[in-house]
Amino acid sequence: MSVKLAPSILACDFTRLGEEIAAIASAEYVHVDVMDGLFVPNISFGLPILAATKRAAKAGQFIDVHLMIERPERYLADFAAAGADGLTVHVEATPHLHRAVQMTKALGKRAGVVVNPGTSLETLRPVLSDMDLVLIMSVNPGFGGQAFLPEALGRVRTVRGWLDEIGSAAELQVDGGVTAENAQALADAGASVLVAGSSVFGADGAAAGLSRLRTALTERAI
Hints:
CATH class: Alpha Beta
């Protein structure tokens, strides 16, 4: 299975946003982390940054929007209009998960659901067959640069098994502490999309960080 990379612009240099996005043009996804200061203890950015990201991204590059916000269904149409290709919502953030998924699909966008490390995977079951993407958090969301929680590997294996059982084509994404050192283990566990922020937008530049991840995954395939 080919693994896609989704650099998170949360870790980029926002004084050089266009250049930073150009440096990750080889990545399949651009990951946009939206935080409201309520669902998570941090505030990141919103619609204007998403719109700028869409303009700067390579044509056809998937704009992957991760909504770490309370009651995300209030803003799905706005984020879709601003340039999102996929919208991922937390099971913990809304009592109306099915509605959020249905609204996303009605907007013509790919629907994703994400679960935090401390939340039972069983919360995914009711919507699993409707998903285009399932995201397993491998850190507690809210801040970049956190260390990977190793128990996430088992959670990825479990959800991969569930998706395979129902014949789902949904992507299985992992976000949090992803590096060249653990990328191949996550791929072996069944992840098909890896989100990486700090390990891509590092001191030696995003192109080099992306290359390290590609190399780790290439070596896995040999």
